[in-house]
Amino acid sequence: MTQFTIPLLAQMKQFKYLTEPNAERYRAILRFCFLNHMQYKNRLTKDEIYSFLKTLPNFSEYTEEMCEQDLKSLVDWGNLKSTQDTSKTATLQEFKNKRFLYELTSIGLRIERFLFELENSQETKAELNPKHIEKIYGLLISIDSVLKDPQKQAVDWWDELTSAFEEIEKSYTEYISMLTSSEYESLMIKEKFLEYKSKLVHYLYNFHDMFQGYLPRIRTLFLNLPQFKVDELLMYIIQAEKEHPKNIFRDGGTIEGYIKSRWQNIKDWFVSPNGQAERLLEQIQQIIRKVSSYAARLSESSTLKVNRTEEYKHLARLFSNLDISECHKLSAVVFGVMCPKYITGDFPRATESTTISILDLPSFKVPLKSRGRLIREKIKVVPASEFSEEKKKRFEEYKKKIEEENELLQGLLIGNKIEFEKLPRITPEVRKRLFVWLSRGLSSKVANTDSGKKFRVIRPQDDKRCILECTDGKMDMPAYILEFVDE
């Protein structure tokens, strides 16, 4: 690959005329020179250029001095070159007042040609022609015959190979870009596109099949080509390029690297997995799918329109043969209720049968409530409910609970204490009640039972522990003491 150098990265003054404030004047002059060059008139005088510019609508105030200054700027930037015209010089004064002929430089010509092709890109000859693929396949097969007489055939073989590959890159890329552009996608959604759909799909399928057939064979030729043959072939090509007059001032190493890189890139284009060749196949498949999809939508749309038109005609004939009352009924059937209201709710159903129409079921009334702010439903005054029986029941339950607690307390008290290490075997219910009291006593100095007995918790000395036996198991715990105090 060509290495970047500072001169390559520097600003190119040949492009300044495209961005300068007077770019419109500079571009008009160069385009006029380019169009004359296309007609083999390469040299123009200032008067010819000025006369042409004055015919343009935006150059009514353009003067000869301005034209001369513009031509001088273009000469300084390297877009034009000037040669003194002495053909009509008759006097010394005329010789001193130099008359120049202006001609596009090689770089100026290339820039204008590029801009001209860019502006007229719609006239591109892009196509998916498989002949370029066939050409490359034939050239790879003929390598052995070329190596029999490389000095005569190698350069021509290389030129044909690079030309065919450049056509592939240019033509195929432009054609794919054209089909995937928004402009062509907008054309694909029009009904007129149906006329061209079959031809386009057939064209794409034909190329796809041809390319898919040649690609494995080209890959095989590239991969099975011995390296010594490649080196020998490229050696003759490089040597011929170095000796060509056009490359007399170019570095030999640069030419060698340039040709080897081109060969490797051509090989990679076909051989690399997920490379450009496979990508081209995928793009064609995507375009075929897209074209088919657009065509299917258009066809479906046109069919629906035809069917709907016939339906409307049939309905119109039905309406025309009925009187007004029958038309109302038919309208209700065809178009439905004009102002429908939907009522939903959890209504009881007499049957779950799906064969019975809603019109066969008995009718019923559904009172509707207003949701307006001004009209509100009156609130009905309801007397307070009587809860005396429920209160009495809850009081009896409370008394029973207190009596049970007192009985439990009397059964566990030793003196005025309940010592956990001296408790007999107890049930889980009793253990639960004792732990509730213990939790209350640990969170405050003096706690109460549900019946109002006051007690405090005495913590064990020296972290003494005990075993609390229950009917469902034993529990190791600190030897707490609940001491009941007088009220």
Automatic annotation (TrEMBL):
<protein>
    <submittedName>
        <fullName>TIGR02677 family protein</fullName>
    </submittedName>
</protein>
<feature type="coiled-coil region">
    <location>
        <begin position="385"/>
        <end position="412"/>
    </location>
</feature>
<keyword id="KW-0175">Coiled coil</keyword>
<dbReference type="InterPro" id="IPR013493">
    <property type="entry name" value="CHP02677"/>
</dbReference>
<dbReference type="Pfam" id="PF09660">
    <property type="entry name" value="DUF2397"/>
</dbReference>
